[in-house]
Amino acid sequence: MKHCSFVAALVAFAPFLAAAQQEVGAYGQCGGSNYNGPTACVSGYHCEHYNDYYSQCIPGGSEATSTADPVTKVISSTAKSESTSSATSAQSTASPTETGSPSGTSPASYPATSGTSFVIDGEPGYFAGTNSYWIGFLTNDADVDLVMEHLQESGLKILRVWGFNDVTSTPSDGTVYYQSFAGGEPTINTGANGLQRLDYVVKSAEAHGIKLIINFVNNWTDYGGMAAYFDYAGISDNTQW
User: Fold this and answer.
1) Over the range 169-191, which residues count as b (16 or more CB within 10 Å of their CB) and which as e?
2) How far is CA 222 from the centre of its chain?
3) DSSP of the chain, one letter per residue?
4) Could you tell me if 44 and 27 are in contact, meaning their C-beta atoms sit under 8 angstroms apart?
5) How would residue 17 be classed by pLDDT, with cut points 50, 70 and 90?
6) Which end of the chain is more exposed for a tag (fewer CB within 10 A), N or C?
7) If we measure between CA atoms, which residue out of 233, 229, 201 comes closest to residue 217?
């Protein structure tokens, strides 16, 4: 009798177990033309459509985990409006349209524009900056801080850094990379040798009064670049992308 009860409980639980196994983890792929895996994200994440080749589970409500056609967003400089598929139209009409300036909710410390000038920390004008593609690949926090200290002393306000290193095979230990396509499975590296390094660059820049321009993809092949995306998506040139 106990054995029968256990089997009955297992059968009753099976649908929930199967559903859990079919959920995509944080920042995992949940859609795309060559993708055949699950499309529902874990709790607290939703499936965001970027293009015909790639959709990803990102933080947010669960309303976007539907397998229906993704929401198409049309954004202007003064307001946002959304057009949705028939499967989600009821939801979009039930909530008010979001309006207002895109910069209206930005913290005061964010750079902005005023006419033909930039505004940094309330000061309008033109600001000198420099580049450091490599700072996000430093593995020692003190080295990052030293770079920011030198920038602060020089009076430079802006630093452009790379927010990408896309690999197609798992690199050796100690190599910093942010996204991997190894084995044909896109994976965001949130570990100590991944986005945690870029996080520290942002933290140190804020502490030293430096504003960052972060490029998240490279059109060339250096550090993966578009070639890594092409290889994964099975396309050969920019005209197909």
Assistant:
1) eeeeeeebbbbbbeeeebbbbee
2) 20
3) -HHHHHHHHHHHHHHHHHHHHTEE-TT-EEE-TT--S--EEPTTEEEEEEETTEEEEEES-GGGG-SSPPPEEEE-SSBEEEE--TTTHHHHHHSPPPBS-TTTTS-TTS-EEETTEEEETTEEE---EEEESSGGG---HHHHHHHHHHHHHHT--EEEEE---EESS---TT---SEE-GGG--EE--STTTHHHHHHHHHHHHHTT-EEEEE---SSSTTSHHHHHHHHHT--STTT-
4) no
5) very low
6) N
7) 229
Comparing CA positions, the residue from 49, 48, 45, 50 lying closest to residue 62 is 45
d(CA 180, CA 223): 11
Structure tokens at 82: 């959304």
Mean residue pLDDT of the chain comes to: 76
Q: What Å distances lie between residue 14 and 11, 18, 19, 178, CA to CA?
A: 5, 6, 9, 36
Top pLDDT among 156 and 80 is at 156
Q: How far is CA 17 from CA 11, 14, 20, 67, in A?
A: 10, 5, 5, 20
Cα separation, 154 vs 158, in Å, equals 11
pLDDT tens across 100-150, in order? 333 344 566 778 888 998 888 888 989 899 999 999 999 999 999 999 999
